[in-house]
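To: structure desk
From: M.T.
Subject: fold request, one chain
Message: Could you run this one when you get a chance? Sequence is below, nothing fancy, just the single chain.
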Amino acid sequence: MMKPGKRGRAPGAALVLPAITILAYLVIIGPIAIVVIAAFSPTEFFVFPPPGLSLRWFVEFFRLDNMRSAFALSLELALSAASLATILASMAALALVRRRGALAGVLQGLFLAPLVFPTIILGLALLLFYKTVGVGILPGLVLAHVLVGTPYCFRSVLTSLQSFDFTLEEAGQSLGAGPFRTFFLVTLPVIWPGVVSGWFFAFIVSFGELNTALFLTGPGETTLPIEIFSYLQFQGSQLVIAAASALQVGLILVLILAIERLVGLARLARS
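Reply: Done. Structure tokens follow.
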């Protein structure tokens, strides 16, 4: 018998949230799974499900000089840009977390601005700036990727620092440790998940960045997303593109497993 003042729940209401969750997972993971499975197809054209399994399109990917060099360049860019963005964002977060007022809010907004600024306009603006001051293609790409990845690192490190007890730093300094030693021995071990999280997101954003890099690459120096875009548009086989996409997914999964071993995904999510 239902208690007074409480409404009965419809029989299907308990199934709505799980159904929506499953649908969301299918929409997000389904297309990625299709591309990854198709990358192992032995056929000449896209067929799903594939009639068999083969590595021919991965071999073809690494056989193509332009694809191989673009993959290597994207990997180098992502590693260097994510590392530089993490250092820059950590320094900025350490400087701003202790400050209050309008100026601190404005500076935080500037660091987060690339998140909401259209990347295609950002790429055009950087192109004009580089042509004015004479910046080379590779340094220009690194700076652009650092700029795009910094907001992710900044927000992640800032969130970790906002829950950090700064009396620990004061205790370390009172025991004779300098600022750098205090940071590496006291602060960094506590905010480490936020730093790793920021680096991870900056790496992913840099590795898949297309709009900004469209304006900044040149002959012989193209990133993998641009090479995929041009190859799919002008040259041919979709299955080579599927193999390239599967390699990107595999690289991200390797990073996730490495981070799980280092800090744990639960700590990463909490940061």
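Reply (cont.): The chain has twelve helices and no strands. Let me know if you need anything else for the meeting.
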